[in-house]
Design brief:
The protein has 811 residues and is α+β, with helices and mostly antiparallel strands. It is built from 31 helices and 19 strands.
């Protein structure tokens, strides 16, 4: 027999009668089961000579008032312990607790336990899960929604969050040093899927699931910090951004508030899309993917549970479908694979499967958990080592960080790695602020890129990240935590939802130009209006697909067909071709623009990064295949040759068939020139007229952004004097590429078109038109109005071929 005493409160030290060990365990289990109905609990248990102190200070916020009331009624009608159970933890009920007689009868105890279990079963929020072993009552709390006691809090998961957010920050600050840090987002996806699915499964199985309750929790978790960051970004943008920049931020604020940022960025992606570094809300794409997943995931789980379907089988089918979308698009359209929610769902589902296994399958052995933890760390290290930005991602590569995170979660908090590395206090603290830290870090970096140039100093980056940590901590302490403590959850949800709707509406107004930026331009409008002034394809173009690649065609009536091949410098001639074929369709033959922005017209050349230029190699191959067709009479090839072959350009690789050589190595350049010459020779052997268009005059002097001065913190003014480009300097700088292209043309019977002979006069190449407006929209590309007016040198390429001309040119 064991002696046992149960102290109803900390002030009571009365000895209790002895009971059997089995009966004692049942009483303790019942006591712990019912503690959820009390505001706070502290239970002292003395078991023979072995003392164990059980402190339960969790609040059961998930129980409604009526549910708590019913449980308290069970307490008050149950006397299996020393007095009404409702007195436990109530300092005013000490007397009742100490004077009530003990009811040790086993039959009465079983009856009371049955009453309590039935009451709990009817209203179980499954955040409370009674375990038969009396030593454990699991109160699972999800860090992603701290007010939802659905899963047991695990410090090692906060440590995983710290790893993810630090990886992303290091990659954004120093992309050449920590090249694989972008996989931190995939770690976030798996963690989120695990935690949210744990909540959903426990609620669905307990019969307490509510879509309104679920989305209310998401609003309370996601909206507070996001609203602060969106409002701050819009305010700073209003103060320092120029026209166009501020409008784009407004559009992204609306997209972020509507959780469709990934879709907006997907459709923005392209050659003429501005640099990612100048988009302060670029990082919200991951939040869009996550919330789009949670728009469907609860309903999917509800159907599975309602219809009693095989969970793992259904999840396997959906996982396979999402993975198929991922693998099917990553090769041909990596931009879509990167931003599309369909190609990312499998990552969040991986965490969901882990949640199901934890709740419904036997726990892994201690040895298996240790092995899983070690394997997870090794896979994580591989993720940060072997995955490069030019990899086709997500694709198969994403399995590395996803599998690593899955294994570390499944290993549990007790393994050595999870407990002492991921669960160390510093990592946990960073993990707790990981969400606001992720939100803050990128706007700070992006504004630094905008204000100080393309490469802020490392000292500035370190200072900005310290500022991001401070802002994240303040957001966590002053915004997130106080809102969690507000008693009226409905009022909080309503206010946050209204605030997000207002913020998205404000973003729409800014994007539409209804709200303007602060900066006074003092007559610099003529230069600002030139920015982003590009028009391809125009209204008269019709799409044409060849070998799966989309090209553009202009109709005309003259015999023959001309194919333009090249990058965006060939696309800038689209307005001129539209004008010619519309004005005199009988005089000019049809035209096909088989072009791809940013892609050098060199077979086997690969433009990097692949996420921005996913189809260069395929597009150029399709273009030359189209040019080889019998109905094509003329082929015009042009590009930003000096840019592609520049000594600083390391964003091109040449595929030799046995490996890849990176530009700007001399060997890669030589192979590229040889490949281009072989292509020109092949076209001439097919009897085509071939024109090689040299790069037009270009450089920073053409950039409208270099035609005004001032500060973003004050105002800007036009430069008092804007000089023309000197032709001799331009020719000297481009001598190497011009010489090689002219030699290739001469050796193979192709014709060379030199735009500088038409656009420059004497030694001056003007950068402004007669009205004082810029003629280029950036350092390389002509504005449509200038293309229509000045590009007369391409008319010969679309005119009907004169009799005997082709035979005379055939080598």
């Amino acid at each position: 027999m064991l002696r046992r005493g149960i102290s109803a409160c900390r002030h009571t030290k009365r000895r209790r009668p002895t009971v059997t060990n089995e009966l004692l365990r049942d009483k303790i289990s019942f006591l712990k089961t019912m503690t959820c109905a009390l505001p706070r609990q502290k239970v002292n248990v003395t078991l023979g000579q072995h003392k164990k102190r059980h402190s339960m200070t969790k609040r059961c916020d998930d129980l409604t008032h009526l549910q708590k009331k019913e449980l308290r009624e069970v307490f008050n009608n149950t006397t299996i312990l020393d007095g009404p159970l409702s007195s436990i933890g109530n300092k005013h009920s000490t007397k009742a607790a100490t004077t009530a007689p003990l009811q040790p009868g086993r039959r009465q105890l079983d009856h009371k336990k049955t009453i309590a279990r039935r009451a709990l079963a009817r209203h179980r929020r499954n955040p409370l899960r009674v375990v038969q072993n009396f030593q454990e009552v699991i109160l699972r709390t999800a860090p992603i929604a701290p007010d939802s006691h659905a899963v047991k809090y695990r410090p090692d998961i906060d440590g995983l969050r710290a790893v993810a957010v630090l990886a992303v920050i290091l990659f954004h600050c120093w992309p050449l040093w920590f090249v694989s840090g972008f996989v931190g987002v995939d770690i976030f996806f798996v963690i989120s899927g695990y935690l949210i699915t744990s909540i959903l499964l426990t609620q669905l199985e307990g019969g307490t699931f509510s879509l309104f309750d679920f989305y209310s929790r998401r609003v309370r978790r996601i909206f507070p910090a996001l609203l602060v960051v969106l409002a701050t970004t819009l305010a700073v943008g209003w103060y320092i951004l120029l026209r166009g920049e501020f409008a784009q931020v407004g559009k992204h604020v609306a997209a972020g508030g509507g959780f469709i940022a990934n879709l907006v960025l997907w459709f923005e992606a392209g050659y003429f899309d501005n640099s990612a570094a100048t988009k302060p809300l670029l990082h919200l794409w991951s939040l869009g993917v996550e919330e789009q997943f949670y728009f469907l995931w609860p309903l999917m789980l509800w159907v599975v549970m309602r219809k009693r379907l095989n969970f793992l089988l259904i999840m396997a089918l959906v996982f396979a479908a999402s993975m198929a979308v991922n693998l099917g698009t990553v090769q041909d359209n990596p931009t879509a694979a990167f931003y599309s929610p369909l190609s990312r769902f499998w990552e969040l589902m991986s965490g969901g499967v882990g949640a199901y296994l934890h709740l419904h399958r036997p726990a892994w052995s201690a040895r298996a958990k240790q092995l899983a933890s070690v394997a997870g760390v090794l896979l994580m290290a591989a993720s940060f080592t072997v995955i490069k930005p030019q990899a086709l991602f997500p694709g198969w590569w994403a399995l590395l960080p996803v599998s690593a995170t899955f294994l570390l979660i499944m290993a549990g908090p007790g393994t050595l790695i999870n407990r002492y590395i991921l669960g160390n206090p510093l990592a946990v603290r960073i993990g707790l602020i990981s969400y606001p830290l992720y939100l803050w870090h990128w706007p700070l970096l992006s504004f630094a890129y905008i204000i100080y140039g393309e490469k802020p100093s490392y000292q500035l980056k370190i200072a900005l990240m310290a500022g991001a940590v401070a802002l994240a901590w303040l957001t966590y302490r002053l915004v997130e935590i106080p809102l969690r403590g507000v008693a009226s959850k409905r009022r909080v949800v309503g206010a946050l939802t209204a605030g997000m709707v207002a913020m998205a509406s404000l973003g729409i107004a800014v994007g539409a130009g209804a709200l303007r930026e602060r900066i006074d331009v003092h007559g610099s409008d003529v230069y600002l209006n030139a920015l982003n002034d590009f028009d391809f394809p125009g209204q008269r173009f019709t799409p044409l697909r060849h070998n799966g690649i989309l090209f553009q065609k202009l109709a005309a009536d003259a015999p023959g067909l001309t194919v333009f091949i090249g990058d965006s410098l060939m696309q800038q001639y689209g307005p001129q071709m539209e004008q010619l074929t519309a004005a005199a369709p009988q005089r000019y033959n049809p035209v096909i623009f088989a072009t791809a922005g940013g892609c050098p017209p060199i077979p086997n050349a690969i433009r990097l990064p692949l996420i921005r230029f996913p189809q260069c190699r395929q597009a150029i191959a399709a273009a030359y295949d189209l040019a080889s067709q019998p109905n094509v009479t003329t082929v015009v090839i042009g590009a930003a040759w000096q840019v592609h072959f520049a000594r600083y350009n390391n964003e091109i690789e040449y595929d030799t068939g046995h490996g890849k050589l990176a530009f700007p190595s001399p060997a890669a350049h030589e192979l590229a020139y040889a490949s281009f010459e072989a292509t020109v020779r092949h076209l001439r052997q097919l009897g085509k007229r071939v024109f090689i268009v040299l790069q037009p005059p270009s450089g920073n002097m053409y950039d409208p952004r270099n035609m005004y001065q001032g500060s973003r913190f004050d105002s800007i003014h036009p430069l008092p004097r804007i000089d023309s480009l000197k032709l001799d300097k331009f020719l000297t700088d481009n001598a190497t590429s011009r010489g090689r292209l002219q030699a290739i043309a001469a050796a193979n019977g192709a014709q060379v078109i030199d735009p500088s002979q038409y656009l420059c006069h004497a030694n001056d190449c003007p950068v402004l038109d007669a009205a004082g407006a810029p003629i280029y929209t950036d350092p390389l590309h002509m504005r449509p109005s200038y293309s229509r007016r000045a590009v007369t040198y391409l008319a010969q390429t679309v005119q009907a071929e004169r009799a005997g001309e082709r035979s005379a040119q055939t080598p």
